[in-house]
Amino acid sequence: MPSSHSALCTALTTSVALCHGVADSLFPVCLGFSSIVMYDAIGVRRHAGMQAEVLNMIVEDLFQGHPISQRKLKELLGHTPSQVFAGAVLGIIVACVCCRVCLIAV
């Protein structure tokens, strides 16, 4: 599944670039925001999910049969790089289609 966060951010950035131009001061703000969101989706959140997986194994081994071993941390956090890339491509396509429709309507 593509990353919806990446799709939204790249759609915003692409829309700003198409409607206002890349020379507008809003474009670098959107680009920075998109970069941070995509970095977070790939890096920080994904690694938190990997750590949760390891912690779940440790808790299961240490507290086998104890009620604490029944509580599991969420392991599916973040996205793979291909999911973030697919979301970014989807966002660019959606923004281009929407901007084209807006230009035709005007």
TrEMBL record:
InterPro entries: DUF212 (IPR003832). Residues 1-23 form the signal peptide. Keywords: Membrane, Signal, Transmembrane, Transmembrane helix. It comes from the Eukaryota. The chain crosses the membrane at residues 84-103. It holds the Pfam family DUF212. The keyword Chaperone does not apply. This is Acid phosphatase/vanadium-dependent haloperoxidase-related protein. It comes from Punica granatum.
